[in-house]
Amino acid sequence: MKRFKRSWIIPLMLMILAVVIVVAASIGTVYVPIQSIIRIILNKLGLVNNSGFEPYQMAIIYSVRLPRVLAAVLIGSALATTGAVLQGMFRNPMADPGIIGVSSGAGLGAVTAIALGLSASSIFYLPLFASVGALLAALIIFVLSLRGGKVAVFTLILSGIAVSTFLGAITSMILSFTSKDNVHEFLFWSMGNLYSIRWESVQLVFIPIIIGVVILITFARDLNVMLLGEEEAQSVGVNSSKIRMLILIVASITTAAAVCISGPISFVGLIVPHIMRIILGPDHRLLLPASAVAGAIFLVICDLIARIAFAPIEINVGIITSLVGAPYFLYLLIRSRRAGGVF
Amino acid sequence: MTDNIAIEISGLSFSINRTDIIKDINLTVEKGEFIGVIGPNGSGKTTLLKCINGILKPSGHITINQHNRKDLSTKKMAREISFMHQNTTITFPFSTLDVVLMGRYPYIRKFANEGKKDYKIAEKCMEYTDTLSLKNKPITQISGGEKQRVLFAKVLAQEANILMLDEPTANLDITHQEQIFKYARELCDGGKTVIAAVHDLKIAARYCSKLVLLNEGKIIAKGQPNEVLTSDNLSRAYGVNALVYKNRITGLLDFYLHGYEKTDKKEHIHVIGGGGSSSGVIRQLFENGFLVTAGVFAHGDSDLESAKVFGIEYTESDPFTDISDEAMNKNIGMIESSYLTILCNMPFGWQNMKNLEAAKHADKLVIIEDDDYKKRDFTDGKATKLYNELRKNAVIVTSATLHEAI
């Protein structure tokens, strides 16, 4: 049964993802029929000739909607995979990518770029500053939690909270000295959005996210053993301190890449792995790839809702993920408390 | 010669915040030995095991199958030593087979998955520990005894030559407690080396080929079980009165431990008994801190064994013959020097009539009378006559009310 599940679930999910991508691209202020979208994609891949769609459809789909949908795929999968890996590594169901400080660090980087007026001069400055901020924050938390060459898990979680709070305070301070327009720009960024995504943004993060997600998935078997506890893992030959460091580094880079073009999108990294764990069980060899695909599906759908729910006004995708995520978080909280959990 | 050595430890110490948890441990473990590490809670048993397989980083030198511990990577170490931890909690519903397969970790390369061979080994190990029928069950839904056997199968699947068990019987029912030790014993006979931290001294005495007794992080005795498990060693380690004796029924070493009772009442009480009637009385008096003597016991009498266990002075004579004058005089001497004499609920025959006569010398006499004494008389009334005389000046109690008289 289990082997069977393992062999079909990922291809099935990939098919769903493909359908969701095409459907999401077709829906919007301007409706483009699905067969036209498929022809546009195939045309761009050089497989069919220039027929079966109008030039304006080509412009909308190729220049606006596709990069945006692809960004949602990449970011959703980056956040969900990182979340699943961190939950397993910390043996803590409430862990998410924010725990390693990337969101607050990216926030500080973003506000710096905005306040210095750099974000207006080139679209690359904001992601650059955001990713540098994210990585620096992760590095600080990482170094703080090192003890004798090992990462102390609880120190990491607590210093993560402290550093995030501290960076958040600096961000707020900069915001209180800057112009109204800048505040507005930052707020818009910080709610998480895929509004301004162009091909350039996708190109920027495509490689780091794909590589990061693939590397994280290769830690599946180590993470399984680490679920038994640190000493148990070490006794069967898992060098958990080394693996933990590698995971933290790769997870920081992957999340930083995701957050830098979209702003922090909350709850994807928390709820997607949970849903997958409930459906598929705790085995990371299945859980990690499934979370990667499910995160992509989830974010593409949330972004679609964000675009069309209040059309022509668009809302931030971070709002939609939170609207779905927060109630689920509460549900987990209550269920865990009923089961005599620690939360 | 050195080929025969599995583990060599010299000058091993480990401390946390400058407090020594274990200090200056020197130990050589030969292949095929079953070493039991015993000692009171907090004596460093678990710490010693964790230092050997590198979970903790101690100072000192450890050689494992001719490799310096520091030269072994975590994976290589896992191929030399497998470790069964105490209280492994698995909150995630992995199937038991998946858990056992985790034992194959040190043999699988980074980007590979478990192969057919790994499945075969895992299933063989589960068959050995009688858990194969559970292989598709989640580990979270089986009993404590089953879980322990699954975890033992995982340890076996690791195919290491040295097995370390950290109190594998903790939290198990009596029926399951010895199972892991039986497996381990069998594996030792097959050439594996086992080092186990053992809480239960009886189990340690029964299964281990060698014992190491730890106290406050130091080895205070090591060697064969009967060399290590002496009253003296145990009293020193556990800080209680420890008595070691051979259980007459099981033929195994048995222990009697009780805390020191610091009392001033060192009054001397003499016990007259025989035929198993006085064992309980002797124990009761001993626990209350009295100076106890007893007699006259025939050889082979279980009362005599009790006297030996509690290390008290006693008088003995040959069985099936009358008590010798020498024994009689010694007995009277004990009675006269005692503050109180207790006559137990014993049967009276011609051989031990002199015990009743000796009781007349008692200054204060307590008679335990659980059964009608006439039924205990096998001397056609002669004993009854003597007994009645004794009763006149004695306090009559039953075993249950003895403590009141004392």
Describe the structure.
The complex is a heterodimer of chains A (343) and B (406). Chain A has 343 residues and is mostly helical. Chain A contains 15 helices and 2 strands. Chain A has a two-stranded antiparallel sheet. Chain A is globular, with a radius of gyration of 20 Å. The mean pLDDT of chain A is 86. In chain B, helix 4 (116-128) crosses helix 5 and helix 14 packs parallel to helix 15 (382-392). Chain B has 406 residues and is of the alpha/beta class. The radius of gyration of chain B is 28 Å and the shape is elongated. Chain B contains 16 helices and 18 strands. In chain B, the strands form 4 sheets. Chain B has a 6-stranded mixed sheet with strand order 6-7-8-3-9-10, with helices on both faces. Chain B has a 6-stranded parallel sheet with strand order 15-14-13-16-17-18, sandwiched between helices. In chain B, strand 9 (210-215) and strand 10 form a beta hairpin. Chain B has helices spanning 45-52, 74-80, 96-102, 116-128, 144-157, 174-177, 179-189, 201-207, 225-228, 231-238, 279-287, 302-309, 325-337, 353-359, 382-392, 402-405, and strands at 5-16, 19-30, 34-38, 59-64, 67-68, 81-84, 162-166, 193-197, 210-215, 218-223, 240-246, 253-259, 268-272, 291-298, 313-317, 340-343, 365-368, 394-397. The chains are: A mainly alpha (343), B alpha/beta (406). Chain A binds chain B through residues 2, 91, 218, 221, 224-225, 227-229, 231-232, 234-239, 281-283, 285, and chain B through 50, 53-55, 73-79, 81-83, 85, 88-95, 98-99, 102-103, 105-106, 108, 110-111, 113, 136, 154, 158.
